[in-house]
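Before relying on records like the one below, remember that each one covers exactly one chain. Contacts with other chains, cofactors or solvent are not represented anywhere in the record.
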Amino acid sequence: MTSRQSKQPTSTPSSTKPDAQKTRSRSRSQLNASGVDEALGALSTESGPEGMGSEDMAPEGMGPEEMSGAVEALLFRVGDRDFVTTGEIFAALPNLEPSTDLLASIHREFEARNVTVVEEISDELKAEDALLRNEIKPESAAPPTEIAARRASREKRDSGRSELASFDPVRIYLREIGRVPLLTGAQEVTLAQRLEAGEQARERLSFVEESGIAGVLENEEEESLSAVVADGDLARAQLIEANLRLVVSIAKRYVGRGMVLLDLVQEGNIGLMRAVGKFDYSKGFKFSTYATWWIRQAITRSIADQGRTIRIPVHMVEAMQKVSQSQRRLLSELNREPTIDEIAKDVEITPDRVIEIMGLGQEPISLEAPVGDDGGSSVGDYLADPNAIAPAIAADLAQLQQDIRDALGELGEREREVVIMRFGLVDGEMRTLDEVGRAFGVTRERIRQIESKTLAKLRHPTRRSARLREYLPEL
């Protein structure tokens, strides 16, 4: 197996600091006796390794109490183990901006408590995916006679299926990235150094061009800097391509959350490229450890933005995850479904807020979604619309409207307009005699006469309006 495969957790060295061991034991007892929150206050004043306080260890943008709180809460969850995995650290600190300084501070926090940080196997390439390991062997590896026999029967039976599989974009992508060899730690450092040199050369060339002193550089020196820039770009591409399978291994864990695998991989690749640009090899961390943080952040944020038909803000998604985790934990502890009040107390919010957050987790469903095994009906068939008109009534109304139009068509233009305005046949608003009179520029008495004459015509049995008696018997 390559050097990127995770190592098993190692035991704690014998030369550990007694003060750190006492700190860890004392904090564990505080956690068990008084809960996580009380222990955090005590730990925020403890000293780190070599007399370093929590304020010195906490990176910019993160307070010492937050750092110590996350570390102690994680130690409480892992129990008596003398190691934690990078995956557990990522899960405990999901919302922090990734940086090598932050990773270094977290490592120092755990070292101060005599806890070893190890690579998580799931963060690296797992051996379960033959495509990612590039172990798809050609048929020519088998004896020729067996190849001919198997090929003849298989091509006849599965020709259609194999043809579709050959055009599967996921399998094609996995084959492509599986051809790129994994990197050793030394190779990662070398590529990072080339990348750093390329960025420095690019900055120098940009400064010369922007300052208008391009003539200061000799042609040979300018060509040399351009070559360093090109070499840095090549190193960046190599570092990205060698870690594309890491993106796939992480993205597969998020399938089923509203985005397909290829979309998750694409977002993860964006996070990988950001990690390459911000990686600091001088801190001594493996690139995969740092890149995993950026990849996870890019994927989770894309799911929050694109994974739902109705977008939910990132902070609400985090609140939903917190409530869901509390619900699962209480279910395991109580051996029953926890109540709303119990969940609210556990996550320290109001019960009404819990109900609101749990309601946001409901996924929308299409009215055209099939119901039953036969798929002969849809969800919309079983939902009643209180405002909908029954089909028989709708048909009668449509016929009534047509009969009214036919009856009005036999009237003169002024008679038709007077009837329409008086009875509101267009907009539903009935006008008074004065309003209609002002519209036509005549007196209200004249409008009354026109109305009476028109209604008399409509009531005549020989006209088309006679059909309206079926709807309005009083006419």
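The domain at 185-295 is CATH 1.20.120.1810 (Four Helix Bundle (Hemerythrin (Met), subunit A)).
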